Amino acid sequence: MKFVAYSLAASLAASSAFAASKSTPTAPACSYKVGDRATFIKPDDYLPVAKANQQALGDEKGEFETTQDFNKRVAAAQKALAIKPVLLEHPADHDKPDSGVTYIADEQRFRVFVGAFIGTLTGFDYRYMDKVVLQQTQKSKDTYVASNAYGNQKSVERSVWDVIAIKSWNTFPKSIYWKLPKKDDEEGYSVYIPVPLDQAETFKSGLVTGIEFLPKPPYFSTDTDRVRPKMDWPIDITYNLEQFDGVVLCAVIADKDGRVVKTVEPLIQ
Q1: Of 161, 102, 168, 171, which Cα lies nearest the Cα of 136?
Q2: What is the pLDDT of residues 33-70, one digit of tens each?
Q3: b/e map 178-199, b = 16+ CB within 10 Å
Q4: Which residues contact 34 (CB under 8 A, 6 or more apart)?
Q5: Omega into 173 within 30° of 0, i.e. cis?
Q6: How far apart are CA 148 and CA 151, in angstroms?
Q7: Which has the minimum average pLDDT: 109-118, 139-148, 176-185?
Q8: What angle do CA 50, 87, 182 make, to 5 degrees?
Q9: Torsion over CA of 151, 4, 116 and 113, rounded to 10 degrees?
Q10: In percent, how much of the chain has pLDDT > 90?
Q11: Are 251 and 40 in contact (CB under 8 A)?
């Protein structure tokens, strides 16, 4: 598994046409539709909730515990938790030039590159997503000199990141795509939102985006992933992940008042 903090534009373009021809979503439906009011939870605020849910499940199956008793115990804990879908915010500054949110004044509508607010995903290929990254925080950055077996040396940039992500529950080896409506003259990996010219600047500055998912056991997990450097790519990245386990339901875009203006549902192949 390779986890790389790169733009998804190239891989989205390659996969969007393929996604449109595939089967309908098998995951539970999105809870939101255009016009609904949405309440977003920040990833940091949801961390203690996810950890508490994990603890409520109790220990893993014990040596002297039958499978039947273990399943009963877990089922009882799940019922007591009464888990419902959660809408987590993807913190972002949409006013930045590289945010993926662009206003087309002549058409009086915004073009929103979905990959920008879904977050960086595992691997280069968008079709093989198993995580949706909500938040990345760089903890350290330095350089060191590395050499190969032939004595060639290279200065390597090393960084460590703390990542909060949704781990796609029970989909591997299946693949998640995103259902993106498109016309012949539009990009298949962007969505469009009509906004009058006199409201556009305020709309963009107040835009809120996020991911709704249905938590599933174990509700919370951790992982460490490292992208090792190569001579032609001297980058050494370590990701320390805190993950919310669950079924990805949809991406949600809302205005400053929390009114939903667009939803995008995934496809699981």
Answers
A1: 161
A2: 999 999 999 999 999 999 999 999 888 888 899 999 98
A3: bbbeeeeeebbbbbbbebeeee
A4: 260, 261, 262, 263
A5: yes
A6: 5
A7: 176-185
A8: 135
A9: 80
A10: 45
A11: no
Question: Within its chain, how far is the Cα of 222 from the centroid?
Answer: 16
Give the pairing of strands 101-104 and 235-254: unpaired
Q: Is pLDDT above 80 for 234?
A: yes
The mean per-residue pLDDT over the stretch 71-80 comes to: 90
Q: Does the pLDDT value for residue 12 go beyond 50?
A: no
Q: Are the beta carbons of 110 and 103 closer than 8 angstroms?
A: yes
d(Cα 54, Cα 78) in Å, to the nearest integer?
10
Between the alpha carbon of residue 84 and those of residues 28, 30, 40, 175, 216, the distances in Å are: 11, 12, 14, 24, 10
Q: What is the pLDDT of residues 120-157, one digit of tens each?
A: 544 434 444 577 888 889 999 999 998 888 888 899 99
How are beta strands 153-168 and 235-254 bridged, if at all? parallel
Q: How many residues does the structure list for the chain?
A: 269
* CA separation for the pair 255, 93 (Å, rounded): 14
pTM metric for this prediction: 0.78
Closest residue by Cα to residue 101 from 192, 222, 202: 192
